[in-house]
């Protein structure tokens, strides 16, 4: 499937020499059909289904983060903002401690960090703030490896104090964990 790049697509660096910037088409044949469908639905109704009706608890977390990464790749800032809003709304509408017990919470954070540029902070900062808000529960998750998983993931994305004078939430988390 190919879609014509119109106002919805902010093709990065139109003078970049990428095939998409020259042809004004974006080939989506190798993308997840579900994510392409969500994007197309957004173009028509300015909304998408994040999977809240799914029976699995992790559905909306991974659906939103996967769509966020997809949006990041194709430069659809309005959709990215809605994804962040839905992700945070889902977190706030659930009981944080039970949601944080799902394996998909740390996996969704790792997925966003592994698949977006370092400077893309829109969702990352909100994810980390939720982790800071629930630090005690995350630190208790030793039985399934989440505590050490989270610690290693945070080490991978830090330290901010080397880069700037500002301290980000993930650095606070590491300081608390290291003090244990």
UniProtKB/TrEMBL annotation:
Q: What is this protein called?
A: BTB domain-containing protein
């Amino acid at each position: 499937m190919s879609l014509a790049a119109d106002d919805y697509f902010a093709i990065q660096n139109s003078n970049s020499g990428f095939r998409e910037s020259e042809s004004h088409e974006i080939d989506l044949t190798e993308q997840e059909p579900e994510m392409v469908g969500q994007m197309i639905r957004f173009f028509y109704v300015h909304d998408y289904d994040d999977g809240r009706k799914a029976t699995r608890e992790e559905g909306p977390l991974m659906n939103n983060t996967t769509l966020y990464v997809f949006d990041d790749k194709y430069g659809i800032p309005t959709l990215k903002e809605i994804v962040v809003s839905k992700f945070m709304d889902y977190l706030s509408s659930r009981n944080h401690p039970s949601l944080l017990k799902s394996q998909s919470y740390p996996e969704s954070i790792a997925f966003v960090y592994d698949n977006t540029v370092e400077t893309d902070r829109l969702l990352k900062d909100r994810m980390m703030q939720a982790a800071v808000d629930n630090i005690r529960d995350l630190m208790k998750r030793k039985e399934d490896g989440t505590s050490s998983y989270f610690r290693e993931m945070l080490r991978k994305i830090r330290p901010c104090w080397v880069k700037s004078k500002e301290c980000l939430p993930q650095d606070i988390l590491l300081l608390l964990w290291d003090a244990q």
